[in-house]
Fold this sequence. Notes:
Elements: E1 9-16, E2 20-28, H1 32-37, E3 44-54, E4 61-71, E5 77-80, H2 89-93, E6 99-107, E7 111-120, H3 125-130, E8 136-146, E9 153-162, E10 168-172
Antiparallel strand pairs: 1-2, 1-5, 2-3, 3-4, 5-9, 6-7, 6-10, 7-8, 8-9
Amino acid sequence: xxxxxxxxxxxxxxxxxxxxxxxxxxxxxxxxxxxxxxxxxxxxxxxxxxxxxxxxxxxxxxxxxxxxxxxxxxxxxxxxxxxxxxxxxxxxxxxxxxxxxxxxxxxxxxxxxxxxxxxxxxxxxxxxxxxxxxxxxxxxxxxxxxxxxxxxxxxxxxxxxxxxxxxxxxxxxxx
Length: 175
């Protein structure tokens, strides 16, 4: 199937980098934003109708542009307005049906993030971090706070977190 024959739709996404919150529209297919971010054939992401604000002054727009190219490697998190926009649950779960919910805390030099990871069976940190080509891990019911800026907080029903940006991870027992 050629890419041009895929059905696409446009969603709104907030991307957090080390310095900016970038909001824009992204075209996705049936694989959702996971499919776009975890696509190994492209290191870049195209946003339409993009706005940029510095992390430390979120209310002040720095730039508004019709098109913005974003380097995936530098994305810390992609925050969605709807959990369904992440993509089909089977992509996150690897096809398994028995799913556990783990309460996860993640830190990096810029952000602290708490949310729920749905995982098939017993959680294995090494599998999450090195077990696949997926760089973006889906979390649900997520709370985010900037480390050095405690007033910068966000909530999102669905977040894709770049595992290459993780410094530490804490885990609580499944519910």
